[in-house]
């Protein structure tokens, strides 16, 4: 199972902020909404007309099979985002974990002469060739989450920050150690699939951040991004360590199983930090069952749709001085706690 | 039914076929005495393939009606055929195993292992020194070796094919993960990629490979002793043994043949994705078995049709294409696929039931 997950959330907030700006701008001026030619985005403006209807854009979207809550959220968020724009014609190819099938979907988009393709590849390297072909055919390719192996395969890449996710979790753990004045804390980690680079990145970020406050991971297990594997590995972990102070679990989907294991063993003496940012986890944070979670934004593909539209309409990101869409956007991995959970709850995905 | 008669069922009986089917009368005649001419027609290879042609034509009509300007283009046809080619080559091999009375659940895993083994640093270094054909040989050899293990355990170890190939499914993919360390291995040899992704007179090389596999498979099944032995072993192994056929050896050969087909499919997927990966070929066993079964090959063995298999593959890939063009989701497509499989098998059972009464 290739549950490569990706990234995180900052761009979303920027984008959401932009959206607000635009709405305000449109409400004040109402200038370009009726002439329907928003494409002449010449000079950068503080409040842009980026969201005003412009040239019609046909966007093809293809992602992996939604066999995981986060991936399901990726697909639905992309679709919902496209639905907000009257000038976007959105075509989805059904999700698949077969690289060969996904290649044929992209070939279909090329045959169709779509304007842009938003692609979350089932395997970045395997889709690079066909994405390059699309670029050569003059189609704007936006690469989401799993990177291609060649820079020529995409116009823009939007990614989560797996290393940053570990850093956020580790930094928050350090803060807990300091706040609670723990002298010799037991810190545990429940990772995802260990062989995946994204898991390695997350663990490295966690370890590096802990090092900053002189801590290390005392107990570590690796699950497989599924509820059952989370339950199994967390049970093992609780057996291995009689007392734990802080646990970081990489993934809120497997977190459902992890929480079940805690309940079964009636062990809640530790601060439980999650990862990804599902609505379950956020509800737990609200209810006080969970300390925090680190977001890996499931809205990357939705951002990809927006970027694709801007690229085709030759607009820039209006909060940047530069008039072109950036080559590469890495989203932030913020920590959600009881203090700010209400702000993030709308972004939470259903496991 | 005699062995010779069943052997002919794989012949392309569809209208306009250039290949004559001299023995068809033999299949139809005894049944016609018991049944109406219509059911007799259905029971013949002609009738079965006619059903598939109608299904495919219907799909194309739906495609043209719903996405005419985008469906009915040469480029789209080639997109369908390129997608069909990988699973098609496997399905041709699968036709032999199934009509020989077996089943193979490990094809996807063997494809993954072949693609990984052929793209390791060591193999690619050797390929760079010699020629990219080294990678092709590696993939085919790995496929053949897996098929040999399957075949020997099934034929001589007398373990059920379902169990042996289920074990191979787990083991081959596991080995692929170990070798690749679950990373995707990128192919650096542009000549290899350009050759297999190229076109000959506008037709993609992958599609030509599929066509060649189908033609060779058809000849092997319908025009050689090997094919007749396969159907004899699948239809009634005891009778085949009494007739002097070395049943065990023949069975082993069938799995090796399918292993080779998987090796070729691994090369094709390597070219398509420019990578080798332990995640390649997931669920290919189900796709290929489904294509073979709706094509009209009997799951219980004894009757096999390459032409039907090719239609089966094309029906599923065209269905996928029409769904993609119409922006429909996976779940709907899965339901449609399931319905097609059940309809095909129901039809087949009726046909088989009638012919057994004779």
From TrEMBL, chain A:
The species this protein was found in: Pedococcus bigeumensis
Keyword DNA repair on entry: no
Annotated Polar residues bias: 33-43
Pfam hit, one: Peripla_BP_4
A GO CC term assigned to this protein in UniProt: cell envelope
Protein name per UniProt: Sugar ABC transporter substrate-binding protein
UniProt record similarity statement: Belongs to the bacterial solute-binding protein 2 family.
Top-rank lineage group of the source organism: Bacteria
Localization in the cell: Cell envelope
InterPro entries linked: Peripla_BP_I, SBP_2_dom
Gene Ontology MF terms: carbohydrate binding
Signal peptide: 1-33
Keyword hit for Cytoplasm: no
Keywords: Signal
PANTHER family assigned to the protein according to its UniProt record, in alphabetical order: D-ALLOSE-BINDING PERIPLASMIC PROTEIN-RELATED
Region described as Disordered: spans on this chain: 33-53
Stretches assigned to the Periplasmic binding protein domain: 59-314
Cross-referenced SUPFAM superfamilies: Periplasmic binding protein-like I
UniProtKB/TrEMBL annotation, chain B:
Pfam families with a match to the protein in the record: BPD_transp_2 (PF02653)
GO molecular function: transmembrane transporter activity
InterPro entries, A to Z: ABC_transp_permease (IPR001851)
Membrane topology of the entry: Multi-pass membrane protein
GO CC terms in record: plasma membrane
Keywords, in A-Z order: Cell membrane, Membrane, Transmembrane, Transmembrane helix
Region (Disordered) residue spans: 1-30
Record bears the keyword Glycosyltransferase: no
Location in the cell: Cell membrane
Membrane-spanning residues: 50-68, 80-99, 105-123, 130-153, 159-180, 200-221, 252-271
Keyword Membrane: yes
Top-level taxon in the UniProt lineage: Bacteria
Name of the featured protein: ABC transporter permease
Lineage of the species this protein comes from: Bacteria, Bacillati, Actinomycetota, Actinomycetes, Micrococcales
